[in-house]
Structure formats: C-alpha cells, structure tokens
Amino acid sequence: MNGAGYPRPDRSGPARVVPMLGWLRHYERATLRHDLIAGLTVAVMLVPQSMAYAALAGMPPVTGLYASIVPLLAYALLGTSGSLAVGPVAITALMTGTALAPLADGDPTRYAALAGLLAGMVGVIQVSMGVLRLGVLVNFMSHSVLSGFTSAAAIVIAASQVKDLLGLDAGRAETFPEIAGSLWRSATTAHGVTILVSLVSIAGLVLLRRHVPKLPGALLVVAGVTVLSAAFSLGARGVEILTEVPGGLPAPVLPTLAGQDVRALLPAAVAIALVAYMEGIAVAKALAARTRQQISPNQELTAVGSANVAAGIFQAFPVAGGFSRSAVNFSAGARTPLATVFTALMVALTALFLTPAFHHLPKAVLAAIVVVAVLGLIDRRAAVTAWRTRRSDGLTLALTFLVTLMLGVEPGLAAGVAFSLSVFLWRSARPHLAELGRVPDTDTYRNLDRHTGLHTDPRIAIVRVDGPLYFANAQHLEDRLLALAEQREALDAIVLDASAISDTDVDGAHAVAELRERLAGHGVALHLATVRGPVRDLLGRAGVWQLVHAAGHVHRDVTAALAAVGGPPGPPDRPQVVPASVPQEVL
Fold first, then answer.
1. Residue closest to 324 by CA, chosen among 122, 150, 90, 149
2. The whole model's pTM is what?
3. Which of 267, 287, 341 is nearest to 84 (CA)?
4. d(Cα 230, Cα 362) in Å, to the nearest integer?
5. Are 182 and 258 in contact (CB under 8 A)?
6. What residues contact residue 471 under an 8 Å CB cut-off, 6+ apart?
7. Which of 146, 256, 416, 562 has its CA 20 to 30 A from that of 275?
8. Interatomic CA distance for residues 448 and 453, integer angstroms
9. pLDDT tens digit string along 352-361?
10. What radius of gyration, in Å, describes the C-alpha atoms of the chain?
11. What is the distance, to the nearest Å, from the Cα of residue 559 to the centroid of all Cα atoms in its chain?
12. If DSSP codes are grouped into helix, strand and coil, which group holds residue 493?
C-alpha cells in the first residue's frame, strides 16, 4: 500500500494480463470500507442515469441496468484505474441511437440485436488496439476536436430530450436541424402535466446539485416523482410512464454477425471506440495524478474493450468511463476497481428485485436527468481559449462543433479529425526558420526578429530550423535559403544550426546535398552545426555527411562554424524590432 492507502500495482507474471491479480494480493481490510462506500454511492447515481441513457440510445430502460452489471465486472478485472466508473454515458448513447435508428426500421427486436452487435464491434476494436499497443492513435483527436464535438453533442442530446420534457408527439431525429423541425411541427401536442413534471424534476436536480451535492440527487428525484406519479395516477392523466420494466438478470446472447450490418455499423463502431476510450482515459489520468496511481493507456483500451464485448453479449449497448460518476467515485473514497464490483452487485440487486418500483416513473424524469447531466459538457471557456491561443485551433473547434450540430456526430468527429490533421501537416510542411545573431560578449545566439542589439555579419547568415527535416518540408527549406542567397549579394556562407532538427529522412538528406550544390552556384558555402546523432547517421547512410565533412563544413556548434568562416559577427548592421508581446528571453 502507498501512503494514501492505494494498493501497489504489481504488473509481473499473470498480473500483466489481469491487473486485478496484482493489486488484490496487496489488498487490506481498511481499503474495503472505502471501496464499499464508493461502490454503493456510484450505484445510487448509476441506476437512474443508466436507465435515462438507455432511453437516449433508443433502448428499453432496463438495458441500462444490463449495461451496468457484467461490463463493470469485466473492467474491474482488467482495468488499471481505481477511480474510473464505467457504464452508460450520454455521448456514446447518442452515437448508438444515431447509428442504429436508420438500420432498425422501427423493429425493437432488430434494434436490440444491432445494439449488441455494435457494442461487440466497439469492444473488439478497442481490445485489438490495446493488444497492438495502438493507444497512441487517439492522440490524433486533439483537445479542440473533442471540445467542439462534446459541446455540439451536448446540445443535440438536450434537444433530443425536449419531446419527452414537453410530452410532444414527435418522431425521432438525428441532427439538430431535424430535431428542431420535428419539435416545431409537433409543438401543438405539448402536454401540460408532463411539462409540470419536467419543471419539477429539473428544479429538483439543479437545486440538489447546487445546495446538497453529496446527496444522490437523481435517485431522490426519481423516487419522489415516482411516488407522486403513483399517488396522482399521472399515467392515466396522459403522462408517459415506463409501465412494465422487466426484472431479472440478462442472459448471454451472441450478437448476430450479418455481413451487411457489420459493414454498415463499422464507421460508427470506430467513432464510438475512440470517443469512449478518450472520455475514460482523460478522467482516469486526471484522477490518477491526484492519487499517484499508475494508469496503463493500452491496458485501459483492453479493459474498456472487454467491458464493451460483455455489453454486446449481455443484451446492452456500448459503455465508457463517465466523467461525473468517476468524480463521485473518487470523492467517495474509491481505492481500487473493487469499488466497481460493488457498484455492479448493487445494480444487479436492483435489476432482480426493484424494477417493479419503476412502473410509475415518468419518462420526463429520465429526460430531465439527461438534460441536466449533459448541459455541463458545453465548454464555452475552451472555445474562447482556443481562439485566443491559436486561430487554427479555434477554427478546428468551430468546424467540429458546426458539422456535429448540423450533420451528426460521426461526420462532425470525422471533419474535426481531418481538419486538425490537415493543419498539422501544413504546419510541419512549413517549419519555423529563425535567422540568428550573437548576444554581445557571449557565445549565445538568438532570433533576430525577437531580440535587439545582436551582432551580425553581412557575409554570414546563421539559420536555425525548428522541427524535423523530411519530405514534406525539404523543398520549403531549399527555397527559403536560396532566396536568402539571392537577396544578399555580400553573403559568403550560410551556417545551418541543426540543433532543433530532431529527425530527417532520405528526402531531407537529398535536400541538404542539393542545397549545398545550388548555394555553391551563388558563391555561398553551406556549413552544418550542432547536428544530432540520429540525423548525422542518416545523412551518413545517404552519402551526404561524407561530402560535407570532407569539405570541412561540419562543426560541433555555431561558434566553431563562425570561427571557420571568418570569426564571430561584429556589431549589428541592420535595424531590429522586437514585438512588444514577445519577452526578450524567448528563443
């Protein structure tokens, strides 16, 4: 155990595959109390949430309970986070409903079969990524993409619940414009008593969260409104209630693998797999930083993937690690994944014995739970910060947000990732080039555009390349340095400071050789300084290093290069302006 009471991770032997075998051998009775309290606390929160998210996914509410039993046990066995609370979450539920509705054709049996198939596919993708150690691929989903996606998805989710909040006779729609149109056309069918139930539920949820956050607000609202619904026969007054909620535990059923269904669901499965993992790993890492626990990203992929495979087999839908429940799990004192086991057992008891108690629960209450939960996902501050920090990040966020809102969750996610990768490629194809000057009375060199009073020499240009030199930007470097040679008639030598060139390829090596020859045609010699070992090795294998070295144009640093071409530069010979926003110490 560490000082905070968290078991030491033991990743040797079988524990490398099944982490529970590692931490369980160091488990102490004192930790049991923390995990038990946390597990029961999360269960109280999860029962109403899981039923609400099942409805959001277009599934019967009881399947939310199914998604909160066996999948949680699978994660507890294989997961590395003691605080992550796995189960149904709003965004994946929305993505599930969006993917299944066009394929099910209104057939509940086919809808449930497709949900199991989708969950299994998501799980297989995640497990495969974990086994192949491909967790790094999710890094292609930048913070701007995720922020824009989650904010738009939250608005779509909230809008999709308005029909249940108002009791409208509206059909299911996927995108925000479709939802808005459907709500407008059915506005005259609003039901007064249902609206009253919704207002009471939302007010109760908000007030309980704000003034007594330690109480299980969702469960109290569900219990209170259900009692009122039964007492005043709200179902008979036109309020939609759950009526029969099947009891018992789910039986394992292998999903039907129809080739055309697999192909149709594959894009959604990939998107859900990435989003579900990103949502879970983000909160797991944040909480682990506060507890000094070690999180294995690839093992987390395997664990969450196994949970989704279990969800597919046990008649549920895709699951993920939830932000709000994980925070509650952590604050309630969870130490190990055993807390998740206690949560699953509590939900199982609910499915076995308490489902009749939900008979009179109005659907408007479940909609209110979803709306209150997802509105907190709209991150306005992130949008402002992204725009102020870098316009391209702001554009990425805005594009992801708009496409998700107008066209749907999968197109929005794809557009955001594609645009952010395009921006990355554009930046890497145009690396930052800085012409340097010497700080007086030192051997230190700084960017001429950011500092004043630097010594330069019209015969020598010192240029630093900030980034790798490879096929995408090699031509850019050639063009810039040749333009420099053409513009300055007095130029005799260019010293290329390679200290920031971390990597290169055969195109980069050829660019150096060609640049050397073309500069020589202008009477300018190319000198290399501070070349890193891996870059030097590749230049050597390409036959370029030997040519430059034989000419005496390779130097250990910029100072040595300047000594070889005629000494350090003297006083500044051209005016320099320092931007007011850039501090002098910045390179």
1. 90
2. 0.79
3. 287
4. 10
5. no
6. 505, 507, 508
7. 256
8. 9
9. 999 999 999 9
10. 30
11. 45
12. strand
